[in-house]
Specification:
Number of strands: 9
Helix content: 40-55%
Distance between the termini: 26 Å
Strand order of the largest sheet: 5-4-3-6-7-9-8
CATH superfamily: Vaccinia Virus protein VP39
Number of domains: 1
Structural class: alpha/beta
Strand content: 15-25%
CATH topology: Rossmann fold
Order of helices and strands: EEHHHEHEHEEHEHHHEE
CATH architecture: 3-Layer(aba) Sandwich
Length: 252
């Protein structure tokens, strides 16, 4: 079932909060973990998040000179991959709601010699500040579950992408292998918050991140949201038994 997001409240992890407050609460979470964010991602996923992002990048069909948008770009992993695909003559717009994360991403990419074809914009995925039909491809890695209203974000994405363009969203999802659920729950709720405390310096932030995964729509529900937003050829691919899923859709 697709969650009703028309009410004035929404979820922040397992808590119910005023929908108007969620964006600032999410911003606060990522402000608190910016310095150790990349290290924690490597520890939490045993480095697999880098392989997942590379796989998503292999699906973009981007060509030199085209224009891509990376939403919830964080510290720039996907942005870097997209920038190499569009080349110097193309452009990638790297966006995030969190200024500190985006600035860390900019510093990382400039240290790698990536500049000139990347633009950085503070933006909320629900109200993108871009003209209609602007981008050839839009990606979002591990950001959709943090928005207040996923359908509103998908509607905004639909407007921003060109006809013939592809949207690729990588997100934690629902396990399709029941035998893995017990181990997955133990790892999520017992180990990750402890890692967050010892390494990331903020146990509550990582407790929220774990809870946000559980509150995110399952694969079929998210596919339905893509269809409601007007996308065509909406598909998803489960990775590692549904721990993560890649949702793909086109605008025709």
């Amino acid at each position: 079932m697709v969650e009703n997001m028309t009410d004035k409240t929404t979820h922040f992890g397992f808590r119910t909060v005023d929908a108007r407050q969620k964006a600032s609460m999410v911003r606060g979470v990522f402000d608190s973990v910016t310095d150790r964010y990349d290290l924690m991602n490597d520890l939490m996923s045993i480095g697999l998040h880098r392989l997942w992002k590379r796989y998503v990048a292999s699906m973009t069909h981007l060509r030199k000179g085209q224009c891509a948008l990376d939403l919830a770009a964080g510290t720039g992993d996907m942005t870097r991959l997209l920038a190499s695909q569009v080349g110097r003559q193309g452009k990638v717009v790297s966006t995030d709601i969190n200024h500190s994360m985006l600035e860390k991403g900019r510093a990382r990419l400039e240290d790698c010699g990536l500049a000139g074809n990347i633009e950085y914009v503070i933006a909320n995925a629900e109200t993108l500040p871009f003209s209609d039909n602007q981008f050839d491809c839009i990606t979002m890695a591990f950001g959709l579950r943090n928005v207040t209203n996923p359908l509103k974000a998908l509607n905004s994405i639909y407007k921003a992408i060109r006809p013939g363009g592809r949207v690729l969203i990588l997100e934690f999802s629902k396990l399709v292998t029941p035998t893995m659920q017990g181990v997955y729950d133990q790892y999520s709720f017992k180990i990750l918050p402890v890692l967050g405390k010892l390494v990331g310096g903020d146990e509550e932030a990582y407790q929220y991140l774990v809870e946000s995964i559980r509150m995110h729509p399952d694969q079929e529900s998210l596919k339905e949201l893509f269809l409601q937003a007007g996308f065509d050829k909406c598909e998803y691919q489960n990775i590692h038994g549904g721990i993560v899923a890649i949702h793909s859709a086109w605008k025709y």
